[in-house]
Amino acid sequence: MTTHDPSTGQIWTFAEADYRFGSGPLRIRIDRVLASAPLQQDGETWYEVEGIEVNDQGQIIGPRRATIRASRLPAVRRNPGR
Fold it and tell me: Which of 25, 32, 50, 70 sits 20 to 30 Å CA-CA off 38?
């Protein structure tokens, strides 16, 4: 996983195992983490995020909502109340 600060508009890349539902890596500019509504699945915490998906060349694919493993969202781990 590549981590970036979502407030800067940079792209995050998540491995297929770290998000639901899709195939292959997910590249997304996260605009919003729905941290007030964590999900429990497979014994782990997951968060829904909203943002803009991009391809590996950085071209915009479009709006995307995904559920991502909390342990892969460093900003959420540091600030769970946000």
Answer: 25
- Beta-carbon neighbour count of residue 42 at 10 Å? 7
Cα–Cα separations (whole angstroms), residue 37 to 68, 74, 78: 12, 17, 16
The helix, strand and coil proportions of the chain, stated in percent and rounded to the nearest 5, come to 15, 45, 35
Question: Phi and psi at residue 42, in whole multiples of 5°?
Answer: 55, 35
Q: How far apart are CA 6 and CA 10, in angstroms?
A: 6
Which one-letter amino acid corresponds to residue 1? Answer: M
Tokens of 32: 């919003």
Structure tokens of 7?
């407030």
12-27 pLDDT per residue, tens:
999 999 999 899 999 9
List, for residues 35-47, the tens digit of each pLDDT value. Answer: 888 999 889 999 9
- Stated pTM of the model: 0.77
